[in-house]
UniProtKB/TrEMBL annotation:
GO terms for biological process: cell adhesion. Residues 790-799 have a biased composition (Low complexity). The keyword Signal applies. It comes from the Eukaryota. Residues 20-108, 113-186, 209-297, 302-395, 400-477 form the Ig-like domain. This is Cd56. It is a single-pass type I membrane protein. InterPro entries: FN3_dom, FN3_sf, Ig-like_dom, Ig-like_dom_sf, Ig-like_fold, Ig_I-set, Ig_sub, Ig_sub2. It comes from Anguilla marmorata.
Length: 841
């Protein structure tokens, strides 16, 4: 349509006038940088040339790069501007020519720039504390207005002084903080065009590492396989790497070191002294690097490195013991010997021990060495973390030293030991001499030498006066020799003791005496006390063994209201000494009942068998007829049947008692005047044994058998005794019959000895028969009884008052008198035995 109309117009002009008409479409040229656009120049009228001219007036030639002109047909030409830039702006002219006619049109091409972010990285990183410059370079034409937003809010520069808009539109944050992190929006606006554009910038704030050492100083002990851990905790953003270094050498996991996963811990294995020093932990990230030092102190336990045994000789001027020790801190050294301690600079009172210490070395100097200095010395090295102790031995060689009692007493026939105690190092050999002749010699068969390492005994059994005198002990070792004379002295009998006082009762007396002035060189073994009724000749004698602290002697078996003479003498191994001056006294009249017996109880090994011994006390002036024994378990009220024991008895055995039970036993002595108050004693039986020992079963079995057996034997003996008595006295009985019938013997005319024997047998059996005496003890009893069963505390085991009467003058109660005679004899017998053994001492 348009073309048709234009064509009409052209025809009109061609026809009427030859004028040219030029139009450019579009008439307004506005474009943004980089855009492309074309303009059409149309000519009405016959034009031979259609040309375009640039704003600078130059004709635009074809084949140009960005600005291209194309002739479409006779009447139009196109100007195309590709990829416009600001230079291309201006007024372009289209000129049509034909012959000399010319016509033109212009178009004003305006080129403007849109908002463009030329440099606004979408991620920007800063370091905390720095002044951050958030870059956002924006161009446009006309230049834009830039607005910053943070968290959808416009950044108000007036409100926060840390923010500043730089002239280049950058946003500056002074001293940026971690909290400033986030997305910032940079927005450009052009008011005239209403144009807007923005870009989002992600801001990251890095933080320089910071380090915290868990300890700045560590202590460790060397050479004990110890591991120490050094630790540094790092903070920062991004997460820092931690590394360790010592003397600028980086440490890595190996035999010596080990690092944990995040590197925060360094483990030093098997710490040695060389590991002492400073360790650096280094934390590093993009934002920077931080270091921290940790000091390791390595201590070393004390160790004694030198200490040796030493040998000295007595009276050597001095000897020095040396002890060396290592350790860190340097150890201090102390010496000790037994309970004594010596430390640096210390001196003994006599100045004979001096200790000097230097770094790591200590010396102990002993002056004028004595044999008593020998032994074990301890060296102790000590520092703040430990100690080491070692022992050394000081050997002191010294010549023999002889000790031992110089004087030894004995008597002819009694062997005695002369002991030569020798101290020596090294050990000495000991030789005995007698009159310059070495012992034992062919002439001296009565001499024996018994040696132990420390003592040499010369056992001499003197045969004659010639064997007494001096003996020479000579000890010799490599250091020297010592000899000493020992004297073997003839012992004497003791001198006379003195009777100080006699306290008489009706049948007993307490004799206080004073020991002899001289023992004769050997111990006194016994005292012999002799007494007689004043008007009579016959002495009664009894011996009493010496006991510790003995000051009084109890004499029993005296007649009441009778005057006596008493004397005493002391006996040692050599023999009996002189008698004391005689002492006169008179016994008291009959008093009445006896005094209560003193009791002592002993559990037999069975544990439920009890033996109660008693010691007869004063009988009140008339002989004791018998003893009454009662007993019961303490917790019950019923007494067991009372036992009546003959006057000679000294004990009772109670068997078959309850286990683990306290028993009370009462013993009364009875004479014609009545019963004594009871002597009493309590004792507890053992707990019942879990396994019954054989002895018990055997014992009880025997017990029953024994009772029956004994009863039968006793009965038969009794019968025989009665029969024999009858036979002799009355000439009757079974024996008489047999004698008369078989032998035709008319029986003995003289009774004397036989009668007494018969009686003795009778009384003995009877008296030896304590009712409850059920044990095999029975057989031992006679022997024991004879010994007087002297109780340890009781110096006078007063057996029977009547006994002595036999030896002495009184003859009442003949029947009972026999047995004591036997018992009196046993005293000297036993004494003789002890005598023998003790006399050697
Ligand atoms: C390490 O030892 C020294 C000296 O003994 C002491 O003063 C310090 O306190 C110790 N340090 C530690 C951490 O134990
Ligand atoms: C941190 O350690 C890791 C792993 O050990 C390593 O890859 C990285 O390069 C280290 N970074 C720095 C800054 O040393
Ligand atoms: C030192 O003497 C003691 C005892 O005499 C001995 O046990 C120890 O082995 C000796 N030490 C040396 C190093 O000779
Ligand atoms: C003398 O001593 C020796 C050794 O100790 C000893 O065997 C001996 O019985 C003693 N002799 C006398 C009489 O004591
Ligand atoms: C023994 O003794 C006799 C005389 O007492 C003396 O002649 C003799 O030499 C002695 N024998 C020895 C071996 O000493
Ligand atoms: C003991 O006998 C030895 C050797 O005969 C003699 O050297 C020494 O002097 C005698 N010692 C005494 C104390 O008599």
């Amino acid at each position: 349509m348009l073309q048709t109309r234009d064509l009409v117009w052209a025809l009109l002009f061609v026809g009427t006038a030859a004028a040219l008409q030029v139009t450019i479409t579009p008439a307004l040229g506005e474009m943004s940088v980089g855009e492309s656009k074309f303009f059409l120049c149309e000519v009405i009228g016959d034009a031979t040339d259609i040309d375009w001219f640039s704003p600078s007036g130059e004709k635009i030639l074809p084949n140009q790069q960005d600005v291209i002109v194309t002739r479409n047909d006779e009447a139009s030409s196109t100007l195309t501007i590709y990829n416009a830039n600001v230079d291309k702006a201006g007024t372009y002219k289209c000129v049509a020519k034909t012959g000399d006619k010319e016509s033109q049109a212009t178009v004003n091409v305006k080129i403007y720039q849109k908002i463009t972010f030329t440099n606004a990285p979408s991620r920007q990183e800063f370091t905390e504390g720095d002044d951050a410059d958030i870059v956002c370079d924006v161009v446009s034409s006309p230049p834009p207005t830039v607005v910053w937003k943070y968290k959808r809010q416009r950044v108000e520069f007036a409100k926060d002084v840390r923010y500043k808009a730089l002239s280049n539109n950058h946003l500056q944050i002074r001293g940026i903080k971690k909290t400033d992190e986030g997305e910032y929006t940079c927005e450009g606006r052009i008011m005239s065009r209403g144009e807007i554009d923005f870009t989002v910038i992600k801001v990251t704030v890095n933080v320089r590492p910071s380090l915290r050492a868990r300890q700045t100083e560590l202590n460790a002990t060397a050479d004990v396989g110890q591991s120490v851990t050094l630790a540094c905790d790092a903070d920062g953003f991004p997460e820092p790497n931690v590394t360790w270094a010592r003397n600028n050498v980086v440490l890595e996991t190996d035999d010596k070191y080990s690092l944990n996963e995040d590197g925060s811990e360094l483990i030093i294995k098997d710490v040695k002294k060389v590991d002492e020093g400073d360790y650096t932990c280094i934390a590093k990230n993009k934002a920077g690097e931080t270091e921290k030092e940790i000091g390791l102190n390595v201590f070393v336990q004390p160790k004694i490195t030198f200490l040796e045994n030493l040998t000295a000789s007595e009276l050597e001027e001095q000897i020095t013991l040396t002890c060396e020790a290592t350790g860190d801190p340097t150890p201090s050294i102390v010496w000790s010997y037994g309970r004594r301690q010596f430390s640096e600079g210390e001196q003994s009172l006599d100045g004979n021990v001096v200790v000097r210490s230097d770094a790591r070395v200590s010396s102990l100097t002993l002056k004028y060495v004595q044999f008593t200095d020998a032994g074990q010395y301890l060296c102790t090295a000590r520092n703040s973390i430990g100690l080491d102790t070692q022992a050394m031995y000081l050997e002191v060689r010294y010549a023999p030293k002889i000790q031992g009692a110089v004087a030894v007493y004995t008597w002819e026939g009694n062997p005695a030991n002369i002991s030569c105690e020798v101290l020596a190092h090294p050990g000495a050999s000991v030789v005995w001499f007698r009159d310059g002749q070495q012992l034992p010699s062919a002439n001296a068969s009565n001499v024996k030498i018994l040696s132990t390492p420390a003592v040499s005994y010369l056992e001499v059994t003197p045969e004659s006066q010639a064997d007494f005198g001096s003996y020479n002990c000579t000890a010799t070792n490599m250091i020297g020799m010592e000899s000493k004379e020992f004297l073997l002295i003839q012992a004497d009998v003791p001198s006379a003791p003195a009777i100080e006082r006699v306290e008489p009762y009706s049948s007993t007396a307490v004799v206080g005496f004073e020991e002899p002035d001289a023992s004769g060189g050997v111990p006194i073994l016994k005292y012999k006390v002799q007494w007689r009724v004043s008007q009579e000749e016959q002495w009664t004698a009894r011996e009493f063994e010496v006991e510790e602290g003995m000051q009084v002697i109890f004499v029993s078996g005296l007649r009441p209201e009778t005057s006596y003479v008493m004397k005493m003498s002391a006996i040692n191994g050599k023999g009996e000494g002189d008698s004391s001056a005689p002492e006169f006294f008179k016994t008291e009249p009959i008093q009445g009942e006896p005094n209560p017996p003193k009791l002592e109880a002993k559990l037999q090994s069975n544990g439920n068998v009890l033996k109660v011994n008693w010691i007869k006390q004063d009988d009140g002036g008339s002989p004791i007829k018998h003893y009454l024994v009662r007993y019961k378990a303490k917790h019950t009220s019923d007494w067991k049947q009372e036992l009546r024991l003959p006057s000679g008895s000294e004990h009772v055995v109670l068997s078959g008692l309850d286990w683990d039970t306290e028993y009370e036993v009462l013993v009364q002595a009875e004479n014609q005047q009545g019963k004594s108050t009871p002597g009493s004693i309590s004792i507890k039986t053992s707990p019942e044994p879990t396994t019954i020992p054989d002895a018990v079963t055997n014992g009880s079995g025997l017990g029953t058998g024994a009772i029956v057996g004994i009863l039968i034997v006793v009965f038969v003996l009794l019968l025989v005794a009665v029969d024999v008595t009858c036979y002799f006295l009355n000439k009757c009985g079974l024996l008489m019959c047999i004698a008369v019938n078989l032998c035709g013997k008319s029986g003995p005319g003289a009774k004397g000895k036989d009668i007494e024997e018969g009686k003795a047998a009778f009384t003995k059996d009877e008296s030896k028969e304590p009712i409850v005496e059920v044990r095999t003890e029975e057989e031992r009893t006679p022997n024991h009884e004879g010994g007087g069963q002297t109780e340890p505390n009781e110096t006078t085991p007063l057996t029977e008052p009547e006994k002595n009467a036999v030896d002495g003058t009184s003859k009442p109660e003949e029947a009972e008198a026999k047995k004591p005679a036997a018992e009196v004899k046993t005293v000297p017998n036993e004494a003789a035995q002890t005598n023998g053994s003790e006399s050697k001492a």
